[in-house]
Amino acid sequence: MPSTNGHGSKPERVALYLRVSSEEQRDRETIELQRDFLEQYCNLHELEVTDVYEDNGVSGTIPVHERPEGRRLLEDAKGGGFSAVLVYRLDRLGRSLLVIVDAHDRLEEAGVAMRSGTEPIDTSNPSGRLIFQMLASFAEFERASIRERTQAGLHRALRNGKQLGMIPYGY
Fold first, then answer.
1. pTM score of the predicted model
2. Residue 78 to residues 44, 71, 81, 103, 113: CA-CA distances in angstroms?
3. What pLDDT is stored for residue 78 in this prediction?
């Protein structure tokens, strides 16, 4: 964080990473919501935004380096233009522990920390790394729970005689 004593220290340079899958876009979080929140966060904490990376309609199960904007983020991180990547929530980076840890390792290799605007995560210090690891595990658990509830709902609908999907031609 920059000094508040007014002696001309430069603001920290950060990149914003935003992601929603197609289901999340319909249900809860939009790219616009994440962008607005993070821009306000940066204004409040006097952070300079170098660039914004948006993966819209991309599943959190896809590794960051295989996403269009995620790949660009990682390439720019190697260039040293920013010291941290700021996300709305950790699960914006990924929905599985392996995907999130892979993103962290690739950013760390480039000398870039990860931060969350809504969680106490800052991987530039030991306590932030501990919280990061715990929340990455919770993100994977949440995804598995959603999958389990979805399967249970489909089975219940089938048991109740509901037709799922297209009815075959001729019926």
1. 0.71
2. 27, 11, 8, 13, 12
3. 95
Coil vs helix vs strand at 48: strand
CB 38 within 8 A of CB 119: no
Give the 3-state secondary structure of residue 115.
strand
Instruction: Please identify which of the residues 3, 9, 21, 22 carries the catalytic annotation.
Output: 21
> Quick one: tokens of 101?
């840890």
Helix, strand, or coil (residue 43): helix
Burial 11-50 (b: 16+ CB within 10 A, else e): ebebbbbbbbbeebeeeebebeebeebbeebbeeeebebe
Is 137 catalytic? The answer is no
pLDDT in tens, 112-153: 999 999 988 888 888 877 887 787 777 778 777 887 888 888
